Amino acid sequence: MSRLFVHFSPVKNTMTKHVALLLILFPVCGHLLDIKFYNNPYEYTWEEAVTFCREHHTDLVRVRTAEEDEALQYSGWIGLSRKNATSPWKWSRGDEIAIFTPWHGAPNDNENCVNRESNGKWESEECDEEKPFLCYEEKLILVKENKTWEEALEHCRSLDGVVTEDPASSYRNHGYDLASLITPDDYTTARETAKEATTDEVWTGLCNLAGEWLWVGGEEMQYEDIPKCPTEGLCGVLEKNGSSPYGIRNCQQKRNFLCSKMN
């Protein structure tokens, strides 16, 4: 069952007022797919809405199935647009072509952005119109900074962490960690996110300690064919354009990395 919360974010063109965002949670599959949706009743153009969602959350919502669409229950801009009347409809995150599109009538030629109505139907609109909008937030974060594996681990664990005088606290009280990729959905989500990386591979939470391969989050290791040796100084990566579930690289190399929210 969905739960409803209230989240506050800045209102357009003011530093002092705030507007309530409705937070809708619904169950999805996958270790990294704990997705939250935010309904902002303040009105923005489509481009302004994209900017706001990317600054404060992940992006405008991307809706792939009837189940996801039904769970929203609110109206506003969604992350679907096109360049012109002959271009395909694509989601703002990942440049993915939309397959599920419950249109309420055929889109108009001069309307290139999509508004979701309260009845669940989607309508094309002119992108410079101002409307409420729907943001979403994922557990997975791509950090486009080149760091060694250990530096990446420290970076992830510093995000939204508990600050204490104990220098080891980041290894016990942290909100994020390097990403553990456990399920097939995790790999799909991670590889799609990694496509925006500035390096060909990204660090994950796979590492070797005392001769044992493990995920830094403590999840059970699912690979039986992972090399047993040499192991010293080796850590796990995900290729953004490859098909292998993991790669093994020198931990001192520097590349982008994936952080995931712990809960």
Automatic annotation (TrEMBL):
<dbReference type="InterPro" id="IPR016187">
    <property type="entry name" value="CTDL_fold"/>
</dbReference>
<dbReference type="InterPro" id="IPR001304">
    <property type="entry name" value="C-type_lectin-like"/>
</dbReference>
<protein>
    <recommendedName>
        <fullName>C-type lectin domain-containing protein</fullName>
    </recommendedName>
</protein>
<dbReference type="Pfam" id="PF00059">
    <property type="entry name" value="Lectin_C"/>
</dbReference>
<dbReference type="InterPro" id="IPR018378">
    <property type="entry name" value="C-type_lectin_CS"/>
</dbReference>
<keyword id="KW-1015">Disulfide bond</keyword>
<dbReference type="InterPro" id="IPR016186">
    <property type="entry name" value="C-type_lectin-like/link_sf"/>
</dbReference>
<feature type="domain" description="C-type lectin">
    <location>
        <begin position="37"/>
        <end position="136"/>
    </location>
</feature>
<feature type="domain" description="C-type lectin">
    <location>
        <begin position="135"/>
        <end position="260"/>
    </location>
</feature>
